[in-house]
Write a structure and sequence with these properties.
261 residues, 5-stranded parallel β-sheet, globular, 7 helices, UDP N-Acetylglucosamine Acyltransferase, domain 1, alpha/beta, single chain
């Protein structure tokens, strides 16, 4: 597409998002799209429940089997949703690359649609799938690279198409892997790469551009700023509750030690 064509598309999207009326109309269509995606994912489970209703007139034992079918249908819904939504997310984010994208750009608009759909998945489905193989299958379908024998115990993974997880990686509960950031009025996308044998502690927060080497570790509640690199075998920890003065002294001492080396 020519530069003129890109400019026209950007201006159209910008007007669409800034005008309150067109924004609300667009939101209705977007939410209808989300409902459609999850409706597709619900078909197998709804069919199971529908077929199970024939058991309701067959006595108490059959009623028990019907309730069992309902819970199995819920599990089928979770699995189907992870695959259908993962595939849809992959289509929405095709061609996304690390970079900075202004509001009104096609990538920004598509990312908004993707992020809303992903939030539905994060809140409704992924909490029940973390810690087992289905979340790894979802991540691969959505575009992530996930190595063998890795254990992922968190639902808070955003922008999977920019995520690379090595072999034998452990990601603790409620760790937050976020490949996007709003900065200087732009949507910034960048990869998160986790090396083989690395441990990400519970509630750690990894931001765009984070890269860890092999057999490294990120401690609990540790925040890695954008473009932080952790070397092979290195461990990063967040100090316990300290006053600002203590933190400054600690950092000055670290600079002196580095200068002596």
């Amino acid at each position: 597409m020519s530069l003129t064509g890109n400019s026209k598309v950007k201006n159209f999207i910008d007007r669409l998002l800034r005008n309150p009326i067109t924004f609300e109309i667009t939101s209705v269509f977007v939410y209808a799209f989300y409902c459609f995606v999850f409706a597709i994912a619900s078909i197998p489970s709804i069919f199971m429940v529908y077929q199970g209703t024939y058991l309701l007139d067959s006595g108490l034992l059959m009623f028990f089997f019907f309730t069992l079918i309902c819970f199995l249908a819920f599990y089928v819904f979770l699995v189907a949703s992870s695959i259908v939504v993962g595939f849809t997310e992959r289509l929405l984010t095709l061609g996304f690359k690390p970079g900075a994208y202004p509001p009104g750009s096609p990538v920004f608009f598509r990312w908004l649609i993707y992020s809303g759909l992903h939030l539905w998945l994060v809140n409704m489905v992924l909490p029940f799938l973390r810690g087992n193989n289905w979340i790894k299958i979802y991540l691969r379908v959505a575009g992530a690279k996930v190595g063998k024998e890795s254990f992922i115990n968190t639902k808070d993974i955003f922008d999977a198409y920019l995520l690379e997880i090595g072999n034998e990686v452990l990601i603790g509960g409620e760790a937050f892997l976020n490949c996007h950031l709003f900065e200087h009025g732009h949507l910034n996308l960048d990869k998160i790469i986790i090396g083989d044998g690395t441990t990400i502690g519970a509630n750690a927060y990894l931001t765009p551009g984070t890269r860890t080497g092999k057999n490294s570790a990120v401690g609990m509640y540790t925040y890695l700023r954008r473009n932080t690199e952790v070397g092979d075998g290195e461990t990063l920890l967040t100090p316990p509750g300290m006053s600002a003065r203590q933190v400054v002294k600690l950092m000055r001492g670290k600079r002196k030690d580095n200068a002596q080396v």
